[in-house]
Design brief:
single chain; about 100 residues; alpha+beta; OB fold (Dihydrolipoamide Acetyltransferase, E2P); about 15% helix; globular
Length: about 100
């Protein structure tokens, strides 16, 4: 079996995880992504590994980005191999209530 990698992580998925621990496995980078409203935005993309070994791409919200900077500094090279735990909160996003991922 080959593990699927680099699939975008969603709040819906994290909400279903029994163990919400994860590790940042590579330096984060900015990428231009299209938001649900059609606008292009420059977003931080963080490669992570879940407890089951699968690797995913995570786009943290601004509040979580600030938390990561407080914890590890602004150079994302220093984030690599850091272990964290997600929490999920239902929030209004573009007029729709969705699960949003934060770092505990």
């Amino acid at each position: 079996m080959v593990p699927i990698e680099n699939i975008w992580l969603t709040g819906e998925e994290v909400k279903t995880l029994k163990d919400r621990s994860f590790m940042i496995v590579e330096e984060a980078k900015y990428d231009e992504l299209v938001a649900p409203d059609g606008k292009k935005n420059r977003k931080l993309v963080v490669p992570v590994q879940l407890v089951d070994g699968s690797k995913r791409l995570w786009v943290p919200n601004r509040k979580t980005e600030k938390r990561l900077v407080i914890l590890f500094g602004s150079d994302t090279k220093n984030w690599v191999n850091k272990k964290l735990v997600w929490k999920v909160v239902d929030k209004d996003v573009f007029g729709k209530v969705q699960p949003v991922i934060y770092v505990e």
